[in-house]
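Regression check, zinc ion case 398:
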Amino acid sequence: MSNMAPLASKRPAGADDAALPDLRVQALRSVHRAASELRRGTPVLLTGPEGALVVAAAEVVSARSLLELQEVARATPVLLLAPVRAAAVLQRPVPQGLGAPAIGTGAAEMGAVALRLPPALLDPAALKSLADPTAERLLPEQPERAAMPPCALPAIALAKLARLLPALVVAPATEAVARRLGLLSVAAADVLDYPVAAATSLTRVAEARVPLEDAPEARIIAFRAADGGIEHLAILVDSTVPEPGLVPLVRVHSECFTGDLLGSLRCDCGPQLRGAIKRMAADPAGGVLLYLAQEGRGIGLVNKLRAYALQDQGLDTLDANRALGYGADERNFWVAAEMLRAVGVGRVRLLTNNPDKIAGLTACGIEVEGREAHQFDANGVNDGYLETKARRFGHLLT
Ligand SMILES: Nc1nc2c(ncn2[C@@H]2O[C@H](COP(=O)(O)OP(=O)(O)OP(=O)(O)O)[C@@H](O)[C@H]2O)c(=O)[nH]1
Ligand SMILES: [Zn+2]
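Current build output:
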């Protein structure tokens, strides 16, 4: 499984689709299709060197799809969960290293645990309850651990790409039966390569002048990946960016429907978004705001709402993500780096308090010449959220 392959075959964003090797486009499409199938509750087949695994998402699988999955299965299905969710279901302490204060993403947050699924638990309502910490605990039987099947990590990764809870009913599968039933098949390696492969396939698809209240010269450029996923946007706050010899201000902003559009007080995204535009418009070097379709630090809006429900029960923003089975931060900064390169920006002054963004962009080949703090006062509701970002994500305070 090569995470490095997309780097070796990296190409500048902006080239046309025809320039992409067909195999890479096919891989992206098959992952995107598989994620859509999972969202519909349909089983899909994951293939890897250790064998094939039929998988269905626990939060949406129907009784009919479970029967289909069992027809393809060569053994009794098991439930795959992320370690923190598995610990909660098993009512055991969180595995070492996963509950401790820790920064950002990382290997400690990877992993999967398999649980036995006796007949009473192989049922849509019980599976939803096993998958979702915000759902009522409706378990006719206490689950126990089972042996790990092949392709467990790619299965969890595929559920995350589908923005579903990383909880899957899985079983080793017979490929011929899966083909006969018309189940979609996807290579495990393509799932693991997907985030970088999608980012490096970005193409500029539309561009327009959009005068903003705080930035009358702004232009918006839309980028689309070859998988057909949601577009990411680059907002050039000043039409002269990049001005030769000057290093522009750059803000990497992840979509926040609640904060950006509705003015939610739970976070600081709205003030950060508008504040960044204002600040860039006043800067002699201008600025680029990247608006990434990576809602909820990459877990999606639905899971962010679930995380908010858990925060109302006392968890902080980081532990709420983990309770759902996600990492603290699931974003991919390749997208940002590719868009910056496409608009001719290789060196930036980054508007952020988050050290992971600096490290992430640098690792993707962008020179971060300086960091400028981008902090707004707490509003009486988001105080705990801001405090957690400083204490547990290592956010810089000045
Ligand atoms: N999962 C989750 N995401 C959240 C929560 N609150 C806000 N977000 C998301 O966090 C993202 C905003 O993060 P950023 O503005 O990039 O902030 P940051 O990583 O703290 O870094 P800087 O603002 O650059 O210092 C958006 O996608 C929000 O939807 C939360 O409680 N849980
Ligand atoms: Zn927000």
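Comparison notes: Residues 1-15, 100-108 have pLDDT under 50 and may be disordered. The radius of gyration is 22 Å. No diff flagged against the previous build.
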